[in-house]
Design brief:
By secondary structure, this protein is of the alpha/beta class. It has helices at residues 3-13, 15-50, 63-70, 83-90, 117-121, 143-149, 195-201; strands at 97-98, 102-107, 110-115, 127-130, 138-141, 156-161, 169-180, 191-194, 223-224, 232-233, 245-246. The strands form three sheets. A six-stranded mixed beta barrel has the order 2-3-8-5-7-6. Strands 1-10 form a two-stranded parallel sheet. The longest helix is centred in the N-terminal third of the chain and has 36 residues, at 15-50. The chain starts with a helix and ends with a strand.
Length: 248
Amino acid sequence: MNLTVISLAFLRRRRLSGLLSVCLLGFGLGTIDAVLLFSHQLRDGLERNIGGIDLVVGAKGSPLQLILSSIFHADTPTGNIPLDEARKIASRRGIHQAIPVALGDSYESHRIVGTQRSYADLYDASLSEGRWWSSPLEVVIGDEASRETGLSLGDTFASIHGYEPDGHHHEERMRVVGVMNRSGAVLDRLILTSVETVWQVHGIHAKGDEHDEERRGHEGHGHEEHGHEERSGHEERRGHEGHGHEEH
């Protein structure tokens, strides 16, 4: 008797145990497929959010916390660096572009990021309506943030210091001038504006005052690329943390 005949005879005589074996086999194969699919989606998501960033320069502290807070916007910022130090890093040989990033404020659990248009360009961001900010207190909001907060073009709101719902509300009101298309990256959850906006709501008026140190709860990023790729760096002013991202 061959193996097939023996197997069929076994299944006929032990139908319940045979059915259970088949179900367990199917469950096992399904679990393996689900894990592989999840792993693939997670890897794709991480690659989209990294956006070609290879190095993050920030205040001394936990490297993991620095990465999570500055790239994935999923943790509390690690600390602050002086603006003049950030500028020194950005001016080093081999760094082609410096991109400031100011963190620490939010609106309805969505983080507000003070930066430049070049930050959105890292993720090939585009607008579904409106325009990019051109003046302080103007913001561009991500697709997911727009849907969850109910903010749309022309709406105004007051930001919260920190990431807790019961945090201190700033007096200055920001106005939505643009809404980004869905990108599948971290930008979907963010509210972007200029660094000057973050300075203004925190009472930092002297734009050229380089000796000011940054306040707690804000960050700056730097992106640096090698070879034919661009290099970029982030710098912050008081009230912001400093980061540097290096791309290879």
